[in-house]
Write a structure and sequence with these properties.
globular, about 450 residues, about 0% strand
């Protein structure tokens, strides 16, 4: 039985210290309001200059999925996210495979933050190799996560404030630039420049942009650390999803009005061309500082989340319990899991941005599909809530969310699909080994609130 006090009961549960504002900020910082610029150059090329339209498509799909996460987090307010929801709804083996898919994007999301930190800091300080910035960032973030979730929540306030100030300055300078540039085609960010015509490029861009919305998913992993998880976590999920989606659309729309081109000095850091056009060197420096701060905040929160996914799976015995299922008695955090994530994140030194972004989206979309189906299984099938509006809430809406996530999933690049399917195959083989070919039950630790 999990305790509602800040103490750890029998060393197996996390402290309840987070309220609604902290949970919303966790989601917003995890997604990073400025994450719109992470794959800005890549998605601009993919969609033919229609990034806002691609974001709009993604937001529609994510609202349905966020709603499913909100409903499942109310039903099962414990750590584990898609892993727990699929496990409780479909059984331990399916839960493991959902969690394994979720691990793909959670393990790689800290990595993409370290990668972009290296990219942008090297642009600012070209004499220093990008890998140096990557290693230093990993070390700092690891220490902050080991110290505890309260320090993470406090850091979020500073990071959000810095990004909010930058956004206001960017909007002001962009409007000033546009007002002095003569006629402006206000529909161009939605109609494109003709370089990639048709709807298929937009869908492909929307699939990549799914990684921008992983924050609502991350909020659900903190259910065991929320003061009122059945109410606060669902609210935080929906607020963070809608707020971030509107920010992404607005910023990408303004950016494409300011810099209506597919040609970048470096496609990975294409946002710098936008900043140079909007505000010159001053805005470039300001953006770099705010963006690196935001990426650092996202690295902190994403590493915290994946460590708790690993902890939940280790606690259940599906991953080695001595390594992943332990909480430090001194810090009351899953230190071993945090260190494992840090080691994996060192791959940021060698992987490229486009591949990493697509692979993260693959893992996210598979997990999102599982959660949408979990709503149907839990509420419609198991709980038999089928009267009146319950049919819409428990069957129609989650099925729409499932269909949209599958549609985006099939729009990813061939390489991302190959890597993702190989990851799923590895997970299935691991499950076969643990269960001796399903001759033994999948290890599960029942958690009751």
């Amino acid at each position: 039985m999990a305790s509602a006090t800040p103490e750890v009961e029998a060393g197996s549960h996390l402290r309840r210290v987070l309220g609604l504002p902290s949970l919303v900020l966790f989601g917003l910082v995890y997604m990073v309001p400025l994450t719109v610029f992470t794959t800005y150059g890549i998605v601009t090329e993919t969609t033919g200059g229609r990034v806002p339209l691609a974001y709009l498509v993604t937001l529609v799909a994510m609202v349905f999925t966020a709603r499913s996460y909100a409903r499942m987090s109310a039903a099962f307010p414990v750590a584990g996210s898609a892993y727990t929801y699929a496990q409780k709804s479909f059984g331990a083996p399916v839960g493991f495979l959902a969690g394994w898919s979720l691990l793909l994007d959670y393990l790689f999301l800290p990595m993409i933050n370290y990668l972009v930190i290296g990219i942008y800091l090297q642009e600012a300080l070209p004499a220093i190799p990008a890998w140096v910035f990557v290693v230093v960032a990993i070390a700092v973030v690891t220490v902050l996560n080991i110290v505890g979730i309260v320090s993470v929540a406090r850091a979020n306030f500073v990071i959000i404030a810095a990004q909010a100030i930058f956004i206001l300055v960017f909007i002001a300078l962009s409007i000033a630039t546009l007002s002095g540039s003569g006629s402006v085609d206000l529909l161009a960010p939605f109609s494109g420049d003709g370089a990639a015509p048709g709807a298929t490029p937009v869908f492909a861009g929307a699939a990549i942009l799914c990684l921008s919305f992983l924050g609502f998913d991350a909020v659900s992993t903190l259910s065991e650390e929320a003061n009122n998880p059945k109410k606060a976590v669902p609210q935080a999920i929906m607020i963070a999803t809608l707020a971030s989606g509107l920010i992404f659309i607005a910023l990408s729309y303004l950016a494409q009005l300011v810099y209506p081109s597919n040609v970048f000095a470096n496609v990975d850091s294409g946002a710098l061309d936008v900043m140079t056009t909007a505000g010159g060197q001053f805005l470039v420096v300001f953006f770099t500082a705010a963006y690196v701060a935001g990426a650092s905040g996202s690295a902190i929160t994403s590493q915290a989340s994946v460590a708790r996914i690993l902890y939940a799976m280790g606690r259940d015995g599906i991953l080695p319990r001595p390594v992943f299922g332990q909480i430090s008695r001194r810090f009351l955090t899953p230190v071993n899991a945090i260190l494992v994530v840090s080691v994996v994140s060192l791959l940021a030194i060698v992987i490229d941005l486009a591949t990493l972004a697509s692979v993260i989206s693959f893992g996210a979309l598979v997990a999102f599909s599982a959660v949408n189906l979990s709503v149907i299984k839990h509420y419609y099938t198991d709980m038999r809530e089928r009267s009146g509006a319950a049919v819409i809430n428990n069957l129609v809406l989650p099925f729409i969310g499932f269909a949209l996530t599958v549609w985006l999933w099939t729009s990813l690049s061939g390489l991302a699909l190959i890597i993702g399917l190989c990851w799923l195959a590895i997970g299935f083989v691991w499950l076969l080994g643990v269960t001796r070919g399903f001759q033994r039950p999948t290890p599960v630790l029942e958690i009751k609130e």
